[in-house]
Amino acid sequence: MKTKWLLVLFLLIASVFGACSKEQSSDGKIKVRVAEVTRSLFYAPEYVAISEGIFEKHGLDVELTTTFGGDKTMTAVLSNGADIGLVGPETTLYVYAQGANDPVKSFAQLTQTDGTFLVARNPKGTFNWEQLKGTTFLGQRKGGMPQMVGEYVLSNHGIEPHKDLKLIQNIDFANIANAFASGTGEYVQLFEPTASIFEKEGKGKIVASFGLESGKVPYTAFIAKESFLKKNAKTAQKFTDALYEAQAWVDSHSAEEIAQSVAPFFQDTPLDIATKVIDRYKSQNSYSTNPILEEDEWNNLQKIMKNSGELPKEVPHSTLVDTKFAEKSTKQ
C-alpha cells in the first residue's frame, strides 16, 4: 500500500501538473476526461448523465476511462492523464499526508454507502456474523474503502479481522472475483453485478450488505486537483450541475428504467440482473440524491479509516472537500 502511494507522490513531484483551461471539441462542447476507479452499477448516475445526454446538455464532452484501482485513478489525476477522477475520498487523504502542494479535493459526491456485499460459498442456515470466525475471508485491497468498511463492519459484530479470520488482502481488485470463483475463500466481499451474477450461477449467496451495516459514508466522489478547480471553475460547475440532474433522474425513475438507460455500459450483464442490482442499491439509499459531501459524512469516513489503522492524520472537512459547486447546483 505504501509503495503505491509513494509512487503517486513521485508523480506529483516529478511531473508537470499545470492545470490548463479546458479545450473545446469541434462541436463547441468542453472536453472533460474522467477516470473511474471501476465499472459498476454502483455508479449508475454517472452513466445516466452520459446515456441521457445530460452532460451534453450542459455543454460537456465527457471521455470516460476505467482505471481499475484507487491508486491508478489518483495517478491519472495527478499526472494530468485525467481531469477528474471518480474514486473513494480516502485517496485524497493519502496524497495530502505525503505533502501535496496542489491537494486533490472531493467536489461532488456520487454514492453515500458502501457498495459491497458479503457472499458465502456454502451458506449454512440463517446467516449470522459469528459464522465467519475461523473461516477464510477474501477481502478487498488494503487501504481502500471496501477493505476499511469491511473491517469496520466486522469489528462492530465482534470479529477481529486479523485474528478471527484467515484474511486475504493481497489479490488485485480486478482479480478478486476470479479468485473466489476458482475456489479461494469461504466468504468474499464483492461489488455488484458480480455478487448477483455469482448468486445466479450458484457460485455463492449474498448473505449481508456492508452498505446497510456501515451507515452513511462518502464512499465515492468526483475529485480534482485544487488548481484544476480554480482554473476551470465554470467547467467544474457544469459537471456538478449535470451530475445533480442525473442524480435526480435516478431518484425519480424505476430500477428497470435506470437499467435500460445504463445498459450500453454493461453489455455482458443481463437486464434482469442489472435491474435487481440497481433496485438493491436504491432500496438501501446508496445513490446520493445530491452532490454535497457533508462534514458529518467526512468525519465518519475518517472514523472508519482510523478503525482500520489507515488514517495518516485527521484532516478538516474544509481542507480536502470543496462544496461550493455542489451547493450552487442544489440552489438553482
TrEMBL record:
It is found in: Periplasm. Residues 1-21 form the signal peptide. Keywords: Signal. The keyword Signal applies. GO terms for cellular component: periplasmic space. Coiled coil: none annotated. The keyword Signal applies. Belongs to the bacterial solute-binding protein SsuA/TauA family. This is ABC transporter substrate-binding protein.
